[in-house]
Design goal:
By secondary structure, this protein is of the alpha+beta class. Helices cover 29% and strands 47% of the residues. It has four helices and six strands, in the order αααββαββββ. It has helices at 3-12, 25-41, 45-51, 68-76; strands at residues 52-59, 65-67, 81-96, 99-112, 115-130, 133-143.
């Protein structure tokens, strides 16, 4: 599978806007994980940028560390890359005051220059509450057997 597609599909499961309707912080973060799936599929840059902290980075399944700028450039610089579908489940959130850790599973399909791929990942996202909303400050994804 193309490394770029893997990275984009990974990111699809690890980011989200701070817009939950849940009654608790854990509910809100779980909702964020679902909202981001929709944002990646819809190629919604504004939603994705809204929650990525300026210092955010992600460790992809190959162990490469990507910065916020690298991910945004890689994702939105071309129409050759698309995430076509995504399901996020098995989300578990643990809160620690203004910090939270979310883990879960992402199943996604995408294409790069007409070549389709699919991936199943386990992810971990670290959130920090800033100005009353949650931002992702770090993410990690690991590919699992399909």
């Amino acid at each position: 599978m193309n490394h770029t597609i893997t990275t984009l599909l990974l990111l699809a499961g690890v980011l989200g806007p701070g817009l939950g309707q849940g009654s608790s912080d854990a509910d809100m973060i779980s909702n964020i994980e679902q909202q981001i799936a929709k944002a990646w599929v819809n190629h919604d840059r504004a939603t994705i940028e809204a929650i990525l902290a300026s210092e955010w980075s992600v460790i992809d399944p190959t162990g490469q560390v990507l910065t916020r700028q690298q991910v945004l450039e890689e994702t939105f610089s071309t129409t050759d890359r698309r995430i076509q579908s995504m399901v996020i489940d098995e989300v578990r959130v643990r809160t620690f005051g203004d910090t939270a850790v979310a883990t879960g599973r992402t199943r996604a399909t995408g294409s790069y220059r007409g070549t389709s791929s699919s991936v199943v990942l386990r992810f971990a996202d670290v959130f920090v509450r800033r100005d009353g909303r949650w931002q992702v400050v770090a993410s990690r994804g690991s590919a699992i057997a399909q």
